[in-house]
Sequence to fold (217 residues):
Amino acid sequence: MTRLAIIDYGSGNVRSVQRALEAAANHFEIPLTVTLTDDPDRIRQADRIVLPGVGHFADCAAGLASRTGVTEALNEAVFRSRRPFLGVCVGMQLMADVGREDVETRGLGWIPGAVERIRPKDAAGADLPVPHMGWNVLTDLKSHPVLNGLKQDPHVYFVHSYALTAEHRDHVAARCDYGGKFVAAVARDNLFGTQFHPEKSQQAGQTILANFLRWKP
Fold:
């Protein structure tokens, strides 16, 4: 039985992420127990860890920092114990060195790079609406176990105004084009992150979540 910890730090979308992971586990017959937690000991004991996030980078960073011992437990579980980790939306952005949403805020520093506002343009050079909201296609997919089995031109669901610019190309697992390409997924060792919401991405999202639950980095 896989013990999965979803970090509960007031980010807002933990329940939808939990339901989606449980549905993926059920559909693909993966034995799973899910705990929503901000308990450092439970985080250290988990087999896999998910960090969700919606809203403002600085608010999410502050919420995470306000949970005593959680950041330290995450660093220990992810880097010392090498537990598979998934960051979702702002949870992925928090993996960066810094976020620049209104104010500059330190991230976890796991994926070198910065989170900055997207400035999409159409073919005529006019601004496109921000936030980028709705379905779009993943492009430039890296060969990675978490992305296995996706259909050609997989559509996933986005809601965001900021995106991570990774310093190292080999940390980019997928991109998306919305008036210019941006990083849609990152991967490094036992870390994976999605700018899109797999819990809202129907079949593609279920495949990605099930792949994460079976991934053995």
